[in-house]
Amino acid sequence: MSTFPYRLVATDLDGTLLRADESVSDRTRAALAAATEAGAAHIVVTGRAVPWTRHILDDLGYEGIAVCGQGAQVYHAGEHRLLTSLTLDRQLAGLALSKLEAEVGPLALAASRDGLEGEVIMGPGYRIHEGPLPYVPYEDPAELWSAPLTKVYLQHPTLTDDELTRAARETVGGLVDVVMAGPGIVEILPLGLSKATGLSLAARRLGVKAAETIAFGDMPNDIPMFGWAAHGVAMGNAHTELRAVADEVTASNEEDGIAVVLERLLSA
Q: What is the reported pTM?
């Protein structure tokens, strides 16, 4: 076996490392274990905030650093503590939402509160994705701004995710960053924040450089991570915007796309 060519393997979660049922296949677990045995570190880089990520990391036996909340949170899984956390300026976010609603009409909103136990709160009309992830409903609009936030989620009654993302970027892109993180998941973030921001911080703690990193993802919010890493691999199920900037496209998350690439590199 040759030396594994990367010191860091960065993987998104939903649509990438996780299958539709939120499990990680035995084949992918084995490929990641082999890569770490060959000297690489594995780091999860996800849009999910820590409270929606912790149970997955625990199931994987993951004890290293994870990047959560689209780069806002660097989390030490083994010690169950936040190393860094960046919050959204609520006054600026409120202004951005007002400008956007003036352009496209009323939005359904949700938000992730900051912290290890930060709740996801969901307002009237927000369409909930089926699954076990906890959330707290709210009716009073003031409740959205009552505690520090890492992000706000947007939904529109008629615009597609792509259309809403474009409209938000054109209208308020100078105030906040806007990303599409998955089906029905359009988010506003602190300006300048991305998965690349968090990944670079985490990599620095590990003593690893961008040139030593391979990254896997499936959605447009992974584009900055691909721009930072030496090699970006889009899953077979990836959004067309990510496929367009990827160095290669592998099999889908349901077909062990991460394992396909790691096995090839390990046996090259």
A: 0.92
